[in-house]
Specification:
This is Protein kinase domain-containing protein. Helix content is 28%, strand content 17%. By secondary structure, the chain is of the alpha+beta class.
Length: 222
């Protein structure tokens, strides 16, 4: 009797996409921090669906946090068996996986600092890439018009502290490049958190600059 060979299961399209995205994420982690990032949990698409009640627009959608423009995002509250409160950022547009993988990689590095969101994990299987943050201390988008001058100074100090951390805490300094009010969240204690690192670049050790292909800059808002 001849040997029976078990056929290997052909990976699904979503699995192939997840593998390609995972390879890019690993490349960014190696470049940014020699692969020594904080632990990242990889959620399945089903886990994200369950956590957000199928991205419910009625009970889970956080419309006040949504981002618009070329790299639009939708935000959802959620929970699972290990995390009673999570904040899920879903990128609406495809085709920019490389930038979003950079967002995940840098987020994992700064996750332990008080002026950055605490990263829980990400989902690489979904059609639209998803990033998951801890939301035990509820977060809201900054509305600077509602803040007193004293509070504005505290927020500016928090963000300056975040920049100093990016510039000095790692072997390769990081340049943020896209400061805007939409990229600052406030937790329920009033602490400012910097988010969105897709345009963040690292400067190689011993160098003072790095060439980039995509122009990005600071957005000033009165």
């Amino acid at each position: 009797m001849g040997w029976l060979r078990k056929k290997k299961k052909k990976p699904t399209e979503s699995e192939i996409v997840a593998i390609e995205r995972g390879a890019k994420l690993l490349e960014d982690l190696i470049e940014c921090c020699d692969g020594k990032s904080n632990p990242i949990k990889f959620f399945s698409a089903d886990e994200i669906i369950n956590a957000t009640d199928s991205f419910s627009v009625y009970s889970n959608h956080m419309s006040g946090l949504d981002g618009y423009g070329f790299h639009g995002t939708e935000w959802y509250s959620g929970k699972n068996e290990n995390h009673p409160k999570i904040l899920v950022k879903k990128y609406r547009l495809n085709g920019k996986e490389n930038m979003i993988c950079r967002d995940i990689a840098v987020s994992s590095m700064v996750s332990g600092h008080k002026n950055f969101m605490k990263l829980v994990g990400c989902c690489l299987q979904s059609e639209n890439l998803v990033i998951v943050y801890d939301d035990v201390k509820k977060h809201n988008k900054l509305d600077i018009s509602k803040e007193t001058w004293k509070r504005r100074m505290k927020i500016a100090e928090d963000i300056a502290t975040a920049f100093a951390y990016l510039h000095t805490a790692f072997p390769r300094p990081f340049v943020y490049r896209t400061l805007a009010l939409s990229n600052i969240l406030l937790d329920e204690d009033g602490a400012a958190k910097l988010i969105d690192f897709k345009y963040c670049i690292s400067i190689p050790q011993g160098e003072t600059f790095v060439k980039v292909d995509i122009v990005a800059g600071t957005t000033f808002i009165n």
